[in-house]
């Protein structure tokens, strides 16, 4: 039977040592030592995947290895950062060799593609739980922060949001009365299990985009994070949403629910000045990723209500400012308002 240290060495440390070394000191010591290039900052992000909350118990372990790292690389992409390395900590009920072989294979296949070195971690017995911390580097003035959106900016999204949520719906059997053919179901499931981090796009958008994040908990909910941090609102053209051919074959209500309130897409949502439209499209072409302009960043209207007007008159601007944003005005292609009630995934209030 595998011990903790033989498990680590056979499936993780030995593979890590064969990679091109990005860290000054990698796996095998008490701490790893890493340093970004001169003039760059270290970008750090952590994501946890818990069985039953983030993935189903019978998920393909190779797909799970891919996704565990992909969701972290997606955070680097949203910051416009280049991957350097990652740590892996996980609890495992039993050290099954077939499971470990497949899981580590999916993990390292993606790590090798992005030159992201495993530099440390930990393992223990327990319910299946995966935690990865990823490290990247980005030039200080090129970082794509959530607080940088400005009124008049275009709102863009990459790829085709909603496919992953449709994949979860198919696996759960949520829509028994909706006809979904086998090819579309396979497309949705792959989107759920093998998300593609938009690292190349994030790097290409450096110095072009202003604010950005990755869509992990649903476009409607995640966009609000940019609006909150930037103190702005947005108008979104729902008819401009880029849908895959498979998602477009679902009923319209399901299309919108998946594309706007679904999670696990790991596409980038970002803002850029209107003058940068050509540069954004060139960056997308360079990265080989589709991007779509879906809306506009707008200024908060502090006089939108009598209460706000009184507050402004009485000098209580700051107290009521939070009530003016974040707000998303949903519209169709003609500009007509739509009454949509949407919110993103919440880890403590999800069914």
From TrEMBL:
Q: Give the binding site residues for ATP.
A: 121-122, 146, 216
Q: Which residues bind Mg(2+) 1?
A: 46-47, 122
Q: For binding Mg(2+) 4, which residues are annotated in this chain's numbering?
A: 30, 45, 75
* The keyword Cell division appears for this protein: no
Q: Which domain of life is it from?
A: Bacteria
Alphabetized GO MF terms: ATP binding; magnesium ion binding; thiamine-phosphate kinase activity
Specify whether Metal-binding is a keyword of the entry.
yes
Under CDD domains, the record lists:
ThiL
Further remark = Reaction mechanism of ThiL seems to utilize a direct, inline transfer of the gamma-phosphate of ATP to TMP rather than a phosphorylated enzyme intermediate.
Its family remark reads: Belongs to the thiamine-monophosphate kinase family.
Q: What is this protein called?
A: Thiamine-monophosphate kinase
Q: Which gene encodes it?
A: thiL
């Amino acid at each position: 039977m595998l011990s903790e240290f033989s498990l680590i060495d056979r499936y993780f440390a030995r593979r890590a040592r064969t990679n091109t070394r990005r860290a000054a000191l990698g796996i095998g010591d008490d701490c790893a030592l890493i340093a970004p290039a001169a003039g760059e900052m270290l970008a750090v992000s952590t994501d946890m995947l818990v069985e039953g909350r983030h993935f189903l118990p019978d998920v393909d372990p190779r797909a799970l290895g891919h996704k565990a790292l992909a969701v972290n690389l997606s955070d680097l992409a949203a910051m416009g950062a280049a991957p350097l390395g990652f740590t892996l900590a996980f609890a495992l009920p039993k050290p099954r060799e077939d499971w470990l072989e497949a899981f580590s294979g999916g993990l390292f296949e993606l790590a090798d593609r992005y030159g992201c070195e495993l530099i440390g971690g930990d393992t223990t017995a327990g319910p299946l739980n995966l935690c990865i911390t990823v490290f990247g580097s980005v030039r200080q003035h090129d970082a794509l922060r959530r607080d940088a959106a400005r009124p008049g900016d275009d709102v863009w999204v990459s790829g085709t949001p909603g496919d992953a949520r449709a994949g979860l719906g198919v696996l759960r059997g949520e829509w028994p009365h909706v006809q979904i053919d086998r090819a579309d179901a396979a497309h949705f499931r792959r989107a759920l299990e093998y998300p593609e981090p938009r690292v190349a796009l994030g790097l290409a958008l450096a110095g072009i985009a202003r604010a950005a994040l990755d869509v992990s908990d649903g476009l409607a909910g995640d966009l609000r994070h940019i609006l909150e941090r930037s103190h702005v609102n947005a108008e979104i053209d729902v008819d401009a949403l880029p849908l895959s051919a498979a998602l477009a074959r679902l009923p319209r209500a399901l299309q919108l629910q998946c594309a706007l309130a679904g999670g696990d897409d790991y596409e980038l949502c970002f803002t850029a000045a209107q003058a940068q439209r050509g540069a954004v499209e060139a960056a997308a072409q360079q990265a080989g990723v589709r991007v779509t302009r879906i809306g506009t960043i707008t200024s908060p209207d502090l006089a939108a209500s009598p209460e706000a007007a009184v507050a402004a008159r009485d000098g209580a601007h700051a107290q009521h400012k939070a009530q003016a944003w974040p707000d998303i005005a949903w519209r169709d292609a003609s500009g007509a308002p739509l009454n949509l009630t949407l919110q993103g995934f919440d880890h403590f209030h999800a069914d």
